[in-house]
Input
Amino acid sequence: MIRIRGLNKAFKGSPVLSDVHLDIREGEVVSIIGPSGAGKSTLLRCINLLEVPTSGEITVDGQPVQYKTNAKGKLSLLSQFKVSWLRTSVSMVFQQFHLWPNKTVLQNIIEGPVLVKKIPREEAVAKAEILLEKVGMLGKKLEYPANLSGGQQQRVAIARALAMEPKVILFDEPTSALDPELVHEVLEIMVKLAQEGMTMVVVTHEMNFARNVSDRVLFIENGRIVKEGTPHEMFNHSNARMGSFLKSIH
Ligand code: ADP
Ligand code: MG
Output
């Protein structure tokens, strides 16, 4: 579903991602762990074209994410058509939810399907209500985000991501901004999605999720994937650096 070859990203000449190679199969759940500043968010943002890589290749479901390099060695941007294709294929869930504050829960969910996918409004509303039911938020469909708890906002954000019927969902520390007692309500939904076969890439500090739900775990440090494997391989035989990282977050 996602194929990354030789991905590099630098900001003003400082490398943030170096020679990242990664393949993610359809239906796979991959957790990405690693210290702050390692480049985890930048990796997700490159997949979704929120950042343009400095070099390298990314394909999503066989479609190249960017054009080839131009004469100056820079990657040129996609056509608008390809950007929309990508944005409907790859949904993202952010640490800070990023719901539109001036729209109700329901409006937040139908916005993408109606404006980007051109789905008739009534059909979008009917689908949104099914998704809200799934995340336990149907009763709040007319509320504004400010009137919801963080856990409720994140559940709405997940419903919004699903409303685009994406091929992949990227989660960037989806529970890190939540009060501890609200973390489980978001994780439960993510577990359900994983069981339903959704392809998911999850940057997380929730080691129980990484260990029990993911098929594969990547440890990223200084912009490189320094260790990867099944949860069993990663947590039972963690190397010295990863061991000290794991201690640091407990
Ligand atoms: P992580 O998500 O693992 O904490 P990030 O991908 O957010 O790490 O950041 C990796 C590095 O890239 C950090 O040093 C950060 O300061 C830098 N960085 C991220 N985004 C930008 C940007 N837009 N401009 C300049 N530097 C950035
Ligand atoms: Mg980050």
